[in-house]
Amino acid sequence: MPLIVNSGITADQEKYLAKKLIDRSYLKLSMSAAVEKVAMREGSGLQAFMVRYQRMATPQATLTEGTPPPSSTFSLQEVSVTLDQWGDWLEISDVAQLTAMHPIMEQARELLADNAARVMDREITVVMLAGTAVVFGDGSVATRRAITGAMRLNETVLHNAKVTLSLAGAPPIGGPSGDARVVKTGSYLNGNDYLAICGPEVCADLMQPAVNLGTFVSQALYANQKNLYNNEVGKWLGFRFVESNFLPRFGLFGNTTTSVTAGADFGTGTPVCNVITTGGAFNGTIFFKITRKNILRGFEEDISIAHTLATGGASRQLTFAFPATAGFVYNVYVDTTATGGAGADSGMRLVAENVAPGATTTVSAAPTVGRFPPDNINITANALPIPRIHPVFLVAQSALAWVGFYDAKFYTTGSGAEKSDPLAQKRTVGWKFFGKTVIKDQDRLLRLELATGFGT
After folding, report:
1. Domain spanning 29-43+81-172+191-249+378-456 has what CATH number?
2. By 3-state DSSP, what share of the chain in percent is helix, strand and coil, each rounded to 5?
């Protein structure tokens, strides 16, 4: 007698839906700990300005009796930032609200709150990545692509970083700031440690007992049993380490073969590159770079090398047909001269941003202004055991500020009928914020870029 199995009677089974939702993964968003909040008044425009009176030069010669020296002078330094407005929203039908087992409006608010928090954290990080004070690897190399797998976080790297910050006059968090002063007896209170924000891979390097036992102090072993920052993991060599699993991790997008044949891609998941023989301004060999962003994060983490594409003549256009893989968007950079260039990042500009999966982008000419591409890594030349480079942000007192009109605000439309929705068939819920992070003093923010022995 044949056995009646589950697949044969699914139409006669009641669907069971658990009351408890499956938890989403946990994100450690830590960048807000590094910024001070500065509120702007309405009507003050889109730009915020901060000024500093620069220190005067010291006199270099003694006074001559009866003759005053020439008067001294001072200068002003100005830092400005143009504010950005970000937001997102959901529209939910009355049918969805009535038929969903779990309260869908409540879930919408939670999802949007998570969305807003990630955007805020990401935009702080993007500004910090643009900081001009950066140490690549162990300090012996000058670019991201020259970092080797052996260049990981260690005592020498941190000692050098602390020396750099100290020589620049960057005070530890809570430490003194401002004019010159003589240190008297004792020490400054609450000004002993800088803030260090890093990913879990670098934290794992930090806490290896075989390497750092006796120097790293776990947060659980602090004398006061209290951490100062969310996600703080411990102290080491004058730095309080805070872990974030939302920092970018830079990897190579595509292969390491410079030349790309028309009608082909340059590695797994990369676009097919081609040439249109009329209607453009390109001539000769063109350099380009492609970056890929995960839409749940929004960082340009996967970065190609500078590839070349031979146009085969004049008046050419370039096309990039992107794969249909969901979950990613792409940015395209090309050389700024229509006749091709040397392939340096400083010679390329952004020509297409946030290109959707499955789309084809046509580039007719290269712009002379715009954003430069991010630096790529080089896994072939440097034999990285793990093909990712990880930033670590070292922050001193008053290094950054978030300047804006308001933090994230949330908006929900009512459940009744109105002119735009006469039958009360939908409700909306959304958020927006208006502001941007600014680096107040480049000397107070130092970025390390390192390999690690962990992760994928």
Report:
1. 3.90.1690
2. 20, 30, 50
Two structure tokens written together for 254: 């595509």
Q: Which H helix or E strand runs over 178?
A: none
All CATH 3.90.1690 domain ranges in the chain, comma separated: 29-43+81-172+191-249+378-456
Which whole number is the average pLDDT over 427-445? Answer: 93
CB-based contact 240:222 (threshold 8 Å): no
CA atoms within 13 A on the CB side of 113: 7
Rounded Cα distance, 220 and 239, in Å:
16
DSSP string, 279-338: S--B-SEEEEEEEEEETTT----EE---EEEE--SSSBEEEEE----TTEEEEEEEESST
| pLDDT at residue 187, as a whole number | 46
Using CA atoms, how far apart are residues 206 and 197, in angstroms rounded to an integer? 12
Inform me whether the pLDDT recorded for 91 exceeds 70.
yes
Q: What percent of the chain has a predicted confidence (pLDDT) above 70?
A: 86
Rounded-to-integer distance, Cα 246 and Cα 121, Å: 8
d(CA 337, CA 335): 6
How far is the C-alpha of 83 from the C-alpha of 435, rounded, in Å? 5
Largest CA distance in the chain: 122
Summarised one tens digit per residue, pLDDT across range 281-326 is 999 899 999 999 999 999 999 999 999 999 988 999 999 999 999 9
